[in-house]
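Thread: quick sanity check before group meeting

JM: Hey all, I'm pulling together slides for Thursday and realized we never actually wrote out the predicted structure for the chain we discussed last week. Dropping the sequence here so it's in one place. If anyone has concerns about the input, flag it before I start.
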Amino acid sequence: MSGTSMDGLDFCLLSLTVQEKTPTPRRWELEIIRTYSLALPEPYQKALRGVIAQKAAPLNILAELDWQTSQLIARGLQQALSQWQLTSEDIDILGMHGQTLWHCPPQISQAQISQGYTWQLGNPSVVAELTGIHTIGDFRSRDMAVFGQGAPLVCFADQLLFQAVGINRAVQNIGGMANVTVLSSQGLSSQEVIAFDTGPGNCLIDLLMSQWFSRPYDHNGDEAAKGQLHEDVLNAMLNDPYFHQHPPKSTGREYFNWTWLEQWFTQFPELSQVDWLRTITELTACSISEAYQRFIPPECYPNEVILGGGGTRNRFLASRLAALLKPCQLKTHEDFGIPSQYKEALAFALLAWSSFLGLKNNMPSCTGAHKGVTLGVSAHR
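JM (edit): ok, ran it. Output follows.
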């Protein structure tokens, strides 16, 4: 798995026992065996970010990036297998998300829905050939073919891992983007789970750190903690239409990017760099808490919020979120025996296995798809 942060590949090895096809906690038993991470090469990261920022590239560059992504995934898996002292013959299925290059969800206006589209770099056929493992990838396209957002997809795993009778829970991922899955204490079916992207997670913070502080991220939120919050700027940013758009919805770097930031730099030129970092960090926390208030039904409002993703390592951001979400109890994936860094890799392993079984795994109540479909394209070993 490589997410919107575009800094590394995460691998998660699962042992999965399926007692019956219906995915429920009592019928699907899983154990995380090993994990592995591979940092993406700087030239590859730079090329990716350049293509996304420019919104254009020569065809040969795009084709080369797609091939490089397949090679990086295969190489990372081979390194992981070596470290785990396993061979490709020991692996039944490889679930491969790929690297999102562009994601454009469908637009809804005056009861009209435009067709969305998405592009994840990395070819399952190439990876299957290079690794000798049955590979399943391209998970988002099928959902978008039935007018879904193509995201979030981790809600399938969230329900399997975290739903519990008697406790309302929100599973809040803070990666490059931030997304939430709302799980009712009533044990609702997959047709009634709520999930959507709340807005930017770490992406804007990381942009500021890279551009102004020459660092890839704000360690523990130490730099943001030095700044002053400008509530007038924060409130202006929170008026962005995305934050008021009703779910189902998804977003990405195509929207929340340096161009998005520049409009606010122009409007509020008096802020110092560290004050911008403080205020943008608050934007992530506030956009999450306001999304809860605005879009989660009172009967489903969480007693517990389970944090995951790289944002959990930003202690200042986590503390601000805890303050804004009181009296909700904040927990982490580690409290449930799941390493936060590998949660999305785990989720796509589960999606791959459900795809192998032929299950409908896109959860239309979360993506807005017109019907349930089986996500993923198979390339056999």
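AS: nice. The chain has a mean pLDDT of 92. The chain has two domains: 8-151+340-379, 155-336.
JM: adding both to the slides.
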